[in-house]
Write a structure and sequence with these properties.
Layout (H helix, E strand, L loop, with lengths): L2 H18 L3 H29 L4 H25 L7 H28 L3 H40 L2 E5 L6 E5 L2
Antiparallel strand pairs: 1-2
Helix pairs in contact: 2-3, 2-4, 3-4, 4-5
Amino acid sequence: MNKRLIIPAFAILSLIMASCGATPKQADLYNRQLTQWQSDVKTAGDSLEQTFRSFDSLLIKDALANAKLITKRNIVALKDKGFLRNDSTLYNAHIKYAYTYQHVLDNEYEKMYKLYCLPDEEYGLKGDKAFRKLQLEKNQKLNAAFFDLAQAQTDFAERYNLTLKKKQVSDSLISTTKL
């Protein structure tokens, strides 16, 4: 091949390869958006947890409905957003976390709510034991999904040269571009 053609061919190939991937700034913005949605879901879940301490079944019912609505909206938003260029790892972890939260809301939290609606004489020691078992199951599921999400986010940050900072309020990780 002619030497004059090698340099332009290499330049074009480099340009094509560079345009396929996301920039650190794009990755940072993408991560922040997904993290905000994940934080919204977790905040709704935290509010639901607080209502269980109130022993008010109407507050619990409303908080459960709100958490389900926010989770459903965030799943739709995640699906609409899709993954970043050719990098689906972080997206998949966020989707898994959101679907896990939805599953826990529809199952463990729903059962916990029904237990709280029982009259005191029916609830008793058996109800307390069932409630604690449900709490343990939901915590295990959510912690596993969050661990996978945090790992995917750490890997994503390394690929795009981002620094992660832990937010105090929701245990979410946010990114900032390294300078």
